[in-house]
């Protein structure tokens, strides 16, 4: 079954390598992931006062993420951490308190960098936020994509054939199975609970 995946890219840069990685994942045809890239560059900075009458961009973002079966973060590392624009989006989606659109939503994290450690610091800061947000995050394969440059992509902006594309393809398949497992197990638990309630009625 195809799952609706909200992809949140932590770079606003036109030629972003992370956006190209995300686009490559969207372009994989056999992974049963129905991906949409969610805009975050227009989100006003989070200010709790505004939650009384939230900006329309916040509402749009919350609805888009809320409607997804899973969330895939694809991000650079800025100064060994999460880019501010992505942290802002995470904060916007997490509130008002008790109404987080991330709650229980299966997720995965990919970080890419021209550097050698592949955004490890950013990846784990996103993970740290996801723990608090109660998101079941896929553990393996981890994706700290190092040495990614414009040369890693073809003219249409998709990953060229090679180990990096293979890794991303494996990750997309694993993420499909992860989302499937979580949704199916919840469904089975709900069916079990309904069955037991009927037996005791
Ligand atoms: C403000 C800033 C901080 C950065 N800090 C890091 C860093 O900590 N680690 C790293 O690997 N690359 C760092 N870089 C380089 C980025 O990895 C590189 O610019 C990358 O292409 C950004 O991702 P993007 O192409 O998706 O925009 C930094 C770049 C900027 C603009």
Compact overview of the structure:
The protein is an alpha/beta fold.
Describe the protein in words:
It is a single chain. The protein has 201 residues and is α/β, with parallel strands linked by helices. The protein starts with a strand and ends with a helix. Strands 2-1-3-4-5 form a five-stranded parallel beta sheet, sandwiched between helices. The chain has helices spanning 17-27, 56-66, 84-94, 120-132, 163-199, and strands at residues 3-9, 33-38, 70-75, 107-112, 144-145. The chain is built from five helices and five strands. It has a single domain (3-199), classed as 3-Layer(aba) Sandwich (Rossmann fold). The radius of gyration is 18 Å and the shape is globular. 38% of the residues are buried. Flavin mononucleotide binds at residues 11, 13, 16-18, 76-80, 113-115, 119.
Number of helices: 5
CATH architecture: 3-Layer(aba) Sandwich
Bound molecules: flavin mononucleotide
Radius of gyration: 18 Å
What's the CATH topology name? Rossmann fold
Mean pLDDT: 95
Oligomer: single chain
Low-pLDDT runs = none
Shape: globular
Q: Can you list the strand order of the major beta sheet? A: 2-1-3-4-5
Number of strands: 5
Q: What is the CATH superfamily?
A: Flavodoxin domain
Main β-sheet description: 5 strands, parallel
Q: State the end-to-end distance.
A: 34 Å
SS strand fraction: 5-15%
Percent helix among the residues?
Answer: 40-55%
**Domain tally:** 1
Helix-strand makeup class? alpha/beta
What are the secondary-structure elements, in order, as H or E? EHEHEHEHEH
């Amino acid at each position: 079954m195809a799952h609706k995946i909200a992809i949140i890219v932590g770079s606003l840069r036109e030629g972003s390598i992370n956006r190209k990685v995300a686009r490559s994942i969207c372009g994989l045809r056999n992974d049963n992931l129905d991906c949409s890239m969610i805009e975050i560059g227009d989100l006003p900075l989070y200010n709790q006062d505004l939650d009384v009458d939230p900006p329309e961009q916040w509402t749009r973002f919350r609805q888009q993420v809320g409607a997804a079966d899973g969330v895939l973060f694809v991000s650079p590392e800025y100064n060994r951490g999460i880019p501010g624009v992505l942290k802002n989006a995470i904060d916007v989606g997490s509130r008002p308190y008790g109404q987080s659109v991330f709650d229980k939503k299966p997720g995965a994290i990919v970080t890419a960098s021209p550097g050698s450690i592949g955004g490890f610091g950013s990846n784990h800061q996103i993970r740290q936020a996801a723990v608090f947000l109660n998101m079941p995050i896929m553990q393996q394969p981890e994706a700290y994509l190092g040495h990614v440059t414009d040369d890693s992509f073809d003219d249409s902006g998709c990953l060229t054939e090679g180990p990096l594309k293979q890794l991303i393809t494996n990750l997309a398949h694993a993420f499909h199975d992860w989302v499937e497992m979580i949704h199916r197990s919840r469904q089975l638990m709900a069916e079990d609970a309904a069955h037991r309630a009927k037996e005791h009625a």
